[in-house]
Structure formats: C-alpha cells, structure tokens
C-alpha cells in the first residue's frame, strides 16, 4: 500500500512552522511526525502539502493510496486501523477524518465511503502551535518506549548523579560529563553523537537528538526536546527546538517552540507568564488577530531562520515569523511578521538578499548548503507574508 501524509485542515493554525514544512515534518517528542508514522508503518511516505512546498516534498500516488492526516501522532491501535483500510473506507475519530483509502484520482466522499470508527485511546493531535510544547511530555514518553524497546543503553558514565537510571537511554557516540540526570518523572533520551557538558542538570521527560550539545551548567526542565544539531544552554523549560537551532547562552526559554536555523542571543529571555496571571493570547494567522489559547504559560513561537540579538526580551505569547531579525532594548511587539528587521523602536522589511545571505552563512557553519529549492520556498514565504509587514 502507498501511504501519503497530508496537511489536513490545520496548516494555517500551525503557521509559521508550516510556511516552510508540511505538518508531517513538525518535531514533537523525540522524532518528527513523519518519522513516527514511517517507523510504525515500516514504509516510506510522500506528502500532500502546500504548492510551494511540493518541490521539496512531492506527492507520489500509487494505484491505491492511504491518505493520513499528519496532525495525528500514530499509536499501535490507530495504525492497525489505518493499515487495514481498503479502497472506499475511512477511519473517523469523533467524526473527524483520520485516514482514508482510495484509488488514484478518487476523492474522499463521506456519503459513499464506509466509515470505520476509532474508539480506542485518544490519539495525540497537533492542532495548534502551542500543542507542540503542551503535549511534548506525553510524546517523549511514547517515542522513548518505542525507540528503546529491546535495546540496551550505553552505560551511564561515572561522575553523573542519576535518579531512575532505567529510564535513561544513551545512544552510541553520546557523551554525558559530570551531570545530573533525574528521570523520576519521565525518561531522558540522549541521542547519537550528542554531548552533555559538565555541570548540566536535566529533568525528564527530555530528549536530546543526534549531534546536539547541552552547554556547561545548563538547567533543563521537563518536557523539553532539543532537535538534531542544536546547542542549548542557560535555563530551558518545556520547550521544543526543531533542529539546527541555538540557544547556547544564559537566559530563560520557557513553554516555547523554535523552528530550524534559529539563533537566540546571549542573555535573551522569554516571559511565559503574564504579570496578572491572565490567559495568554497568540497571533492567529488565519483570523489575522490574537486568539485565546486557554493557557496560563506560553512563551515564544519562532519560525525558521529567525534570530534575535543579545539581551532581547520577548513578551508572554510572542509569535515571530520566518527569517526575522530582532534586536535592541525593550520589549518588541508580540507579533513579528516574517522578514522583519528591528525591535522595540520599530521594524522595516528584512530584504531577501540579506536574509538569504544570513541563511547561507549559518548553514555553511554546519557544512550544509542552501539549495535552490529551499531558496524558492523562502522566497515564496516572503511573497505570501508581504501584507503583514508595514515599513
């Protein structure tokens, strides 16, 4: 069977991250949603996504296809329902389409398709950007159990203080030096070729992915995922970094999500709680206004390739788009459009040549090249977000 992960109806609710990736490539827990599905399915997937992303994530249709809403995280019970589908059948959870099977060129028709109800445990679904951190603890635990099942961890090095060592897993090539690992409330996963420097204090659930570094003396609280090839330091609580991003210095990051190729300047801080303890509102791209989150704790949502200078202060519930450059004293506004340049004193348009030069320079430091296809995606985002910028 040919499996296709599609963006579903939530792609606008997951901006700015879905400007530059399909829903399937959002990281939550240890892996991306796509990596989870492909592991369960033991099969490669293709993608139905926005037109400007389809060059990097093309759609590959077979004669028979199962389309899966990528906002749902897989479980064994859900995957059993999905893999058992035949053409003309659809899996529903609370009357919402999770997956359906059809022949090439056939469209979903709920009046004609046979409905199969999914009534097992409630699946994790990423419906809003803040779900990425609020549901991250649960996702780490599920990924940890699956990834480590039947495998043995590398020994925990001498000199480390450990609580509940059975819930600590260290991959090949990883190093943990004279640090505190507390897995009493959830597992700690240390990925391949990663490094935890001296004096770090980590509470699970926590995931450090391949090639990433926890800097000396870092304080990492539960519910945090550090994606591949990141650097993390200072104080971090319940936050997710997708990959190739840096928050390497002192300063606080809490209840936040950073995309790829982001950089947080030294001594920058995010507020994750309003002074009056009121509910946090976040910028809603679809409504073009601020929407209620139902959360008391919510920090920074930052899209790919965005940066901030040293001593930047982010207000509670700040949303930063793609390729923004934020700097200066005081609090900038709590919605910063893509390709914005400035801070509290005001913003101008971050010209694409300078933004792309910065992207190339940062990627070059990791021996990676900004491809023409990736450049085209970033240029498409610049055009799509023009109405949000005001010079």
Structure commentary:
The structure is a single chain. The protein has 391 residues and is an alpha/beta fold. It has two domains: 2-117, Alpha-Beta Complex (Spore Coat Polysaccharide Biosynthesis Protein SpsA, Chain A), CATH 3.90.550; 131-388, Hexapeptide repeat proteins (UDP N-Acetylglucosamine Acyltransferase, domain 1), CATH 2.160.10.10. The chain has six helices and 35 strands. The protein has a nine-stranded parallel beta sheet with strand order 8-11-14-17-20-23-28-31-33, with helices on one face. The chain has a six-stranded mixed beta sheet with strand order 2-1-3-5-4-6, with helices on one face. It has a six-stranded parallel beta sheet with strand order 7-10-13-16-19-22, with no helix packed on it. It starts with a strand and ends in a 7-residue tail after the last helix. The model has no long low-confidence stretch (mean pLDDT 97).
């Amino acid at each position: 069977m040919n499996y296709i992960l599609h963006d579903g109806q939530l792609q606008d609710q997951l901006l700015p991250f879905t400007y530059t990736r399909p829903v399937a490539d959002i990281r939550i827990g240890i892996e991306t949603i796509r990596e989870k599905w492909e592991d369960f399915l033991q099969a490669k997937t293709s993608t139905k996504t926005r037109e400007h992303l389809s060059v990097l994530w093309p759609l590959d249709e077979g004669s028979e296809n199962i389309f899966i809403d990528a906002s749902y995280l897989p479980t064994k019970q859900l995957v059993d329902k999905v893999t058992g589908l035949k053409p003309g059948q659809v899996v529903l959870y609370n009357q919402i389409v999770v997956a359906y099977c059809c022949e090439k060129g056939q469209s979903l028709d709920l009046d004609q398709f046979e409905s199969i109800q999914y009534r097992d445990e409630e699946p994790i679904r990423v419906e809003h950007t803040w779900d990425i951190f609020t549901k991250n603890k649960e996702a780490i635990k599920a990924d940890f159990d699956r990834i480590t099942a039947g495998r043995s961890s590398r020994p925990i090095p001498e000199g480390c203080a450990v609580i509940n060592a059975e819930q600590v897993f260290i991959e090949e090539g990883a190093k943990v030096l004279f640090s505190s690992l507390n897995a009493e409330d959830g597992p700690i996963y240390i990925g391949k070729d990663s490094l935890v420097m001296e004096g770090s204090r980590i509470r699970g659930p926590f995931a450090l992915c391949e090639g990433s570094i926890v800097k000396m003396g870092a304080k990492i609280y539960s519910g945090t995922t550090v994606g591949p090839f990141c650097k993390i330091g200072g104080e971090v609580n319940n936050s997710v970094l997708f990959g190739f991003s840096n928050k390497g210095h002192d300063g606080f990051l809490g209840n936040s999500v950073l995309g790829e190729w982001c950089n947080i300047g030294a001594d920058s801080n995010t507020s994750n709680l309003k002074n009056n303890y009121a509910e946090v509102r976040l910028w809603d791209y679809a409504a073009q206004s601020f929407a209620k989150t139902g959360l008391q704790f919510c920090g920074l949502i930052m899209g790919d390739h965005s940066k901030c200078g040293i001593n930047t202060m982010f207000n509670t519930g700040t949303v930063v788009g793609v390729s923004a450059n934020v700097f200066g004293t005081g609090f900038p506004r709590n919605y910063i459009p893509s390709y914005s340049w400035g801070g509290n004193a005001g913003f101008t348009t971050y010209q694409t040549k300078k933004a792309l030069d910065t992207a190339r320079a940062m990627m070059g430091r990791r021996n990676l090249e900004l491809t023409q296809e990736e450049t085209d995606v970033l240029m498409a985002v610049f055009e799509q977000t023009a109405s949000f910028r005001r010079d």
